[in-house]
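Researcher: We're teaching a course module on how sequence relates to structure. For the next exercise, students receive a sequence and then see the predicted structure as tokens, so they can try to spot secondary structure elements on their own. Here is the exercise chain.
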Amino acid sequence: MKRIFVGIKRVVDYNIRIRVKPDNTGVITDGVKQSINPFDEIALEEALRLKEKGLADEVVVASIGPAEVQNQLRTALAMGADRALLVEATGIEPLDAARILLKLVEREQPLLVLLGKQAIDDDNNQTGQMLAGLWDRPQATFASKVEINGSTARVTREVDAGLETLEVDLPAVITTDLRLNEPRFVKLPDIIKAKKKPLETLTPAALGITPRSRVKAVHFAPPALRQKGIVVKDVNELVSQLAAKGLI
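Model: And here is the predicted structure for the students to work with:
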């Protein structure tokens, strides 16, 4: 079976203003709306489009997190994914996330693995690359266009200098950028149907993984308040002000 494997992460919704806890030990998540990481949602949308083109038979979505992540997985199923896998664990760092995903990938044997290029909570941009390295398969990151041609994938990447096109052998890992597509809206009938789709729950131990912490966050702080701007009369005054601040 031609299968596409998609990894998603539960994050604070991108429309929500992040607030730091009063004791600076983290961000406030109690009562805050949680959603699928936007880049991961794009990855799922691309998988669904590839399936609709007849290039895949099944889309499997997986996530790592607490039991509450079932809500985001059900949303993914409502979008059109066929099955969902949840590995219940918290505080998982990118390397262990990649190791867990590798175990799932080895079990599912997909034609293609799609992940968002990064999560908007920690912005690590590491899991996809680590998974490809552990899996010993090709990777193409920051994809803005994906074309499947038999046993290869042609990927257009967004890089600092513009666009770069790569061709990779399948199976491979592809991480998605914002301009790849626009995810579909979930309709009520699809939400109802998603409740009947299979969602399997696992643990890291069941996969032979023992997560461990390698990084410790010692302090959280909100960005500094933006300083009030000033109005200048003309270009000459602007240049003088910039020069006085050492900006030119």
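Model: If you want an answer key for the exercise: The chain is about 25% helix and 25% strand. Residues 38-52 form the longest helix (15 residues).
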